[in-house]
Backbone:
């Protein structure tokens, strides 16, 4: 829902957000010293996916005019009836004696097996995961799971001028699991096809670039090949779509292949590398044969202007749309609470029972 159509009472509910990316390791406060030491040794840290989720949520709330507090443990301790929105990692659950109803996610756990008694141990009322297939994997264990993707900053990730498009293809390499197999089976043949056709291309590998590098690469590129086994949301390919760059996505499906869980602990499928997608975004392929078969159709579609990837993001994944969804989820959690002997919680405020 666009911000201009959102009728919001700023006093109805103020969100209580909690996010911390690093925990203390040896003594209280040492995470700050470790962060400064890493900055001195390695320069500015790369943006983590969890931090990007938190920052984009806050940006969307700001655009909507929805008020929020960040890491106000003193306030939340004095108001146990209010919802605690914990976005950061799981260590936050053990950092504080939570009495509040908790809206947890999206960065806490890889799978419910990591903490099977979570909903019994703590007052968690709703767990958020980034995408629909991830939610389906969680629900048999934690039924109160909901898919919530964070929004994309469409002002920051915007199309460049046609004359800036000096590179045919950006190859985005996020092949992590079983890489020694897929390097000769997929990655190298993709490069070889581009070389054979005389297509200019650049490559970025996940975890080895900064956001600014990705922005520059997208501004120069006419199309992107996205090589990734699966994504819970896929912020990077969605940033490309927001920039108006069509995507040719490897979407092999099959079971969730995380070796920490599969096949001995979790067997779930099918997964997707592009869980938010329609025909405007580009084309998909399952394997190398599919790449070879569909590449020409994809490239011809790019040159003919067949795809309209930015419109997909504008219709589904803006900062405002996803922040509003988050706010509504939090408000629904608040409405479910009935503090004993006091009253009923409506839109974050207590009302008398009569």
Residues:
């Amino acid at each position: 829902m666009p911000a201009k159509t959102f009728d919001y009472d700023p006093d109805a509910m103020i969100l209580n957000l909690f996010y911390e990316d690093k925990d203390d390791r040896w003594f209280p406060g040492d995470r700050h010293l470790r962060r400064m030491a890493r900055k001195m040794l390695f320069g500015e840290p790369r943006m983590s996916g969890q931090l990007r989720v938190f920052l984009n949520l806050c940006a969307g709330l700001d655009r909507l005019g929805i008020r929020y507090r960040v890491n106000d443990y003193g306030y939340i301790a004095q108001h146990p009836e209010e919802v605690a929105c914990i976005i950061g990692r799981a260590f936050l659950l053990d950092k504080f004696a939570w009495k509040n109803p908790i809206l947890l996610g999206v960065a806490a756990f890889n799978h419910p097996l990591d903490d099977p008694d979570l909903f019994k141990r703590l007052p968690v009322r709703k767990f958020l995961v980034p995408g629909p297939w991830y939610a389906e994997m969680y629900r048999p264990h934690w039924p109160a799971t909901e898919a919530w993707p964070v929004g994309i900053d469409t002002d920051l990730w915007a199309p460049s001028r046609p004359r800036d498009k000096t590179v045919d293809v950006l190859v985005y390499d996020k092949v992590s699991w079983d890489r020694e197999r897929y390097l000769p089976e997929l990655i190298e043949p993709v490069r070889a096809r581009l070389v054979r056709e005389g297509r200019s291309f650049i490559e970025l590998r996940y975890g080895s670039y900064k956001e600014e590098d990705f922005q520059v690469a997208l501004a120069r590129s006419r199309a992107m090949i996205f090589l990734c086994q699966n994504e819970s949301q896929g912020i990077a390919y969605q940033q490309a779509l927001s920039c108006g760059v069509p995507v040719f996505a490897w979407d092999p499906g099959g079971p969730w292949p995380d070796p920490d869980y599969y096949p001995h602990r979790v067997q779930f499928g099918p997964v997707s590398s592009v869980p938010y997608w329609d025909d405007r975004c580009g084309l998909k392929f399952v394997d190398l044969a599919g790449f070879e078969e569909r590449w020409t159709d994809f490239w011809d579609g790019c040159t003919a202007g067949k795809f309209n990837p930015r419109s997909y993001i504008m219709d589904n994944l803006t900062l405002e749309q996803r922040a509003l969804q988050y706010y509504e989820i939090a408000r629904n959690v608040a409405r479910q609470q009935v503090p004993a002997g006091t009253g009923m919680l409506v839109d974050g405020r207590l009302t008398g029972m009569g």
